[in-house]
Amino acid sequence: MMSRHSVALALTIALLSGPAFAASGGAVKMFDTDNDGTLDLAEVKKAATALFTKLDPDRDGTLDARELRGRLSAKELAAADPDRDGTLTLDEYLAVVEQRFNAANPDKDGTLDAKELNARPGRALVRLLR
Ligand SMILES: [Ca+2]
Ligand SMILES: [Ca+2]
Ligand SMILES: [Ca+2]
Ligand SMILES: [Ca+2]
């Protein structure tokens, strides 16, 4: 039989594993391949490359605005597209990812922790990873 205390505990665990908790710890857990609790640029680029491949079903090696599905605004796409062909190659995509990684890493320690990923620049980066 469950005591009142263990019911409260179960509720707390249910709340902690809800969407709010997933939003804070989720991005680190999802992409932290070396399990050190932070994301470095290599992990972020690996995740971005995997997403790029997923978003490119016609496999022509580029993403157009439709394939990006709103991840970049028209203005952001133009800025990320120096050859102005209206699509992003993987290199162009990863350049934006690296810019956003640096913007999300104000302490310049080479890694992003959950707090940095939860700040506005961090969330902008995560949009390019999943
Ligand atoms: Ca890591
Ligand atoms: Ca494509
Ligand atoms: Ca281009
Ligand atoms: Ca950092």
Automatic annotation (TrEMBL):
Residues 1-22 form the signal peptide. Pfam families: EF-hand_7. It comes from the Bacteria. This is EF hand domain-containing protein. PROSITE patterns: EF_HAND_1 (PS00018), EF_HAND_2 (PS50222). InterPro entries: EF-hand-dom_pair, EF_Hand_1_Ca_BS, EF_hand_dom. The lineage of its organism: Bacteria, Pseudomonadati, Pseudomonadota, Alphaproteobacteria, Hyphomicrobiales. Transmembrane segments: none annotated. It comes from Bradyrhizobium daqingense. GO terms for molecular function: calcium ion binding. Residues 27-54 form the EF-hand domain. Keywords: Signal.
